[in-house]
Amino acid sequence: PEGTALTSRNVPWSPKHRHRDRTILRLGRVLWRSGHRIGEICEHPSGEIVYITLDCPTLRRKGVMIATPTEEELLSMTKGDVILLQPSSSKCDQFGLRWCPFPSVLPFDGTGTCAAAAVRDILLESLHIEGEARERTALFPDENGSPFTYGILNRELNQLCKSLFGANIASTLSWHSIRIG
Fold it and tell me: For the stretch 37-68, what's the b/e string if a residue is b when 16 or more beta carbons lie within 10 angstroms of its beta carbon?
């Protein structure tokens, strides 16, 4: 819950007030539901954009695809609407020819753990980013709008898991654990 003290850090858990906690929570919801790899979230040392960007989600409502939904369309999402999340290039399929040619399907169900709602909320916060900038902006950005490094995401997950499960179990968990459920 909001305000919970995490055993391995000085500030309490606060998705409401802390951008990083909010992003970690949303990322967990989306990876759990979609199976995307953490490499599709993080910056690449080459600087190449291999992470999922704001341009990757598409809203599907009553069979109609909406590539850049408006605030009104996002706020009026209901059960039956779907966010389609196009994959980025992946280490196992850099050109999307074998394993990644199709988007992840994130159904909107209105619950607090809904992956589609997590993406919707990111899109609502990013409405001011338009045009080509959407193709370069990470869907799961750090506080500065840049993609996270693997090291930071791994540390954040470890801190959270230590508080939830203890150090022994936390040492066995990774973003791959989230991905495979």
Answer: bbbbbbbbeeeebbbbbbbbbbbbbeeeeeee
- Cα dihedral across residues 34, 75, 50, 93: positive or negative: positive
Look at residues 14, 19, 30 and name the one whose alpha carbon lies nearest to residue 125.
19
Distance CA 58, CA 179 (A): 21
Q: What is the pLDDT of residues 25-79, one digit of tens each?
A: 999 999 989 878 888 899 988 888 889 999 999 999 999 999 999 999 999 999 9
By CB neighbour count within 10 A (0-12 exposed, 13-18 middle, 19+ buried), where does 73 fall?
middle
Q: Is 87 exposed, middle or buried (0-12, 13-18, 19+ CB in 10 A)?
A: buried
Task: For 67-123, write each residue's pLDDT tens digit.
Answer: 999 999 999 999 999 999 988 765 555 565 555 667 899 999 989 899 999 999 999
